[in-house]
Design a protein that fits this description.
It is a single chain. This protein has helices spanning 16-19, 56-61, 63-69; strands at residues 36-40, 50-54, 72-75. By secondary structure, the protein is α+β, with helices and mostly antiparallel strands. It has a three-stranded antiparallel beta sheet. It has a domain at 27-79.
Length: 91
């Protein structure tokens, strides 16, 4: 009688992180699934690059800071999630 709306179907088959054992099931920032992998470059006090696994919300909230830090971003979704743009340079 009550089913899920098609727009909110189970995303397991659409997410790379659900099928890829190298991608964690939770983001670094919250319990949500990671939407992007951010590679933070070395910085003073951090001699090596660091991987951050961010959900879509926290990625969008921190885009400006990530760009200014020179971070590289990899989209983890099999298909692009609406509203998430992978930024490569400061405009």
């Amino acid at each position: 009688m009550f089913g899920r709306h098609p727009a909110f179907s189970d995303p397991v088959q659409e997410w790379r992180s659900a099928a890829d054992p190298e991608v964690p099931s939770r983001s670094c920032c919250c319990p949500g699934r990671p939407a992007v992998k951010v590679i933070m470059p070395p910085a003073p006090g951090r001699p090596h690059p660091v991987d951050l696994w961010l959900c879509g919300h926290h990625y969008r909230a921190s885009c400006a800071a990530l760009l200014l830090a020179g971070a590289q971003v990899e989209d983890l979704n099999a298909r692009r999630e609406a509203g998430i743009e992978i930024l490569t340079e400061v405009v």
